Amino acid sequence: MIARLSGSLYSKEPNRLIVDVNGVGYEVLIPLSTFYEIGEVHSPVQLLIHTHVREDTLVLYGFKTPKEKQMFEQLTSISGIGPKLGIGILSGMSVDELVPAIRSSNLARLTAIPGVGRKTAERLIVELRDKVSKIETLSAGSEGPPLAKSAQEEDVISALLNLGYSKPQAEKALQQSLAAARDGQPFETLLKTSLQQLAR
User: What's the pLDDT score for residue 75?
Assistant: First the structure.
């Protein structure tokens, strides 16, 4: 799974980018919140990536911050909300606005987002009211530098998230593994030791 892209911005549209990484162009779909934070064409760009795999397609969704990516993954975990609507929700409202709207059951605010009807808004509130507290913690400033980790460390975190662990759990386990490991550990070893930390 691709967890991060770092390269040069080849082209830029409100809902998609092409990122040139060593001569290979990756198409990445993005919310407007990320679009506003991205530099101009040919400038350096770094994105956190959610890789969406279906039977016949592989689509990359890109985010500037960890809280955007985590909210997208929370949204698309809800039945009836696919990646396209997830991007639409993040384009219609920032994470810092979305979290309090869900926690306060603000149906009027949520249904103002294009594509979100009353039933979808109610489902967001029921399924995410308790979960968004973790994202709220990130929004409060504990996310740290979003792209300071190596690509391998991001891959380990992505694998742990895919196994059902939360991002804080995954990051804590990885940091414990790195503290106990020698430099240059392969991906498989870091993933195994991180799982061992989580099992304790």
Answer: 94
* 3-class secondary-structure state, position 133: helix
Burial class, 183, CB count within 10 angstroms (exposed 0-12 / middle 13-18 / buried 19+): exposed
The beta strand positions in the chain, using DSSP E, are: 4-13, 16-21, 24-29, 44-53, 58-63
The answer for residues whose C-beta is within 8 angstroms of residue 113's C-beta and 6 or more apart is 88, 89, 92, 93
**Cβ neighbour number for residue 119 with a 10 Å cutoff:** 10
Provide Rg for the chain, Cα atoms.
Answer: 17
Helices (H), 55-138: 66-76, 83-92, 95-103, 107-111, 118-128, 132-137
Tens digit of pLDDT for each residue in 11-23? 999 899 999 999 9
**Contact of 184 with 168, CB cutoff 8 Å:** no
Query: What whole-number distance in Å separates Cα of residue 154 and Cα of residue 36?
Result: 24
Other C-beta atoms closer than 10 Å to the C-beta of 136 total 16
User: Which DSSP category does 1 fall into?
Assistant: -
Residues 21-54: tens digit of each pLDDT: 999 999 999 999 899 888 899 999 999 999 998 8
Tell me how far apart the alpha carbons of residues 70 and 124 are, in angstroms, rounded to a whole number.
15
State the pLDDT at residue 162.
82
